[in-house]
Amino acid sequence: MYIESKKLSKAVRGNINQNKFTYYSKAVLLQLMLTTAGSFLLRFIFKLALVSAGQENFTAHNFIDIINEPLSFILLIIFIMLLSVLTLFEFSVLTLMVYCSYKKVHFLWKENIKNAFLKWRNFNFKQLFFFVVYFVLMIPLSNLGMSSVFSEKFFIPKFITEELMKTLGGKVIYISFLLICGYINLRLIFSVPLTVINNRPFSYNMKRSFEFTKKGKFKLMLIWLKFGLIMLFVGGFFLGLNTFIFELLDESGKVAVYNSIFYTITRIIFFFFIVISKLVIISSIVKLIIDNDEPLSFKVAPYESFGIKNERNLLPA
């Protein structure tokens, strides 16, 4: 894919600047919904699977015992299916939020959440398998790139990484594994946004993603790196300013009220820049998909239907 770096950077910067607070407010609601109801359901089902197998926790040693228990195995399948639904829902909201901002149209929530569920229902075992593989590939680099709220909660067990890092050969294997995962993630990064936007199977969109990233992937990485460095600098400035102000207010650091406010503001700053960094990646991907004239499978409504003036030619509802 041919990428004009300056043109894409300008489009992404304009999109983020124009919609940053709208994006942030919707992302907060999405995060609250996923980390409360979604996480509760996932924990509940996983706990049931452990209890059904007579286990207190999940380890490499009791894995076989858990999947050999029929009820536990069924519950683990339900857990994986629910995880895929929630992950697809998260990316659907973020992708279509950005898509609609570029096209100056409104996303019809009720109709399209229904369509998102129907899209997931059309996942056969083959498509679900590919989606789970893609999700697993996010885990080693879960805090980088277009990761899910849920993939960020998974990680490679510490005892494995510690064991590998003890020897030179282990370090080479571990670093090589991360590089391979990073490369595959980069080549597949269009898969989910394409699946959200068009009406094609996930496996087909994985192939399309490989085609999209055959050329221009390193230009895309440089654009993300540039935005990342800018956000790192700006975020560091606000974190430093926050620390400086509260050090003036409470030099001892023992006033509970100040400590509570300080940590709340710090978490808000962190969350804001994590959301924006994720949206920078999604915004650039969606812009490239739009420029490729990918057909939209979701219903949208022009701004005029909501009494909002817009002079641009818009997609039909």
Automatic annotation (TrEMBL):
Keywords carried by this UniProt record: Membrane, Transmembrane, Transmembrane helix
Transmembrane segments: 21-46, 73-102, 123-141, 172-197, 218-241, 261-281
InterPro entries associated with the record: GlyceroP-diester-Pdiesterase_M
Domain Glycerophosphoryl diester phosphodiesterase membrane: residue ranges: 15-290
Record-given protein name: Glycerophosphoryl diester phosphodiesterase membrane domain-containing protein
Species in which this protein is naturally found: Catonella morbi ATCC 51271
Lineage, opening ranks: Bacteria, Bacillati, Bacillota, Clostridia, Lachnospirales
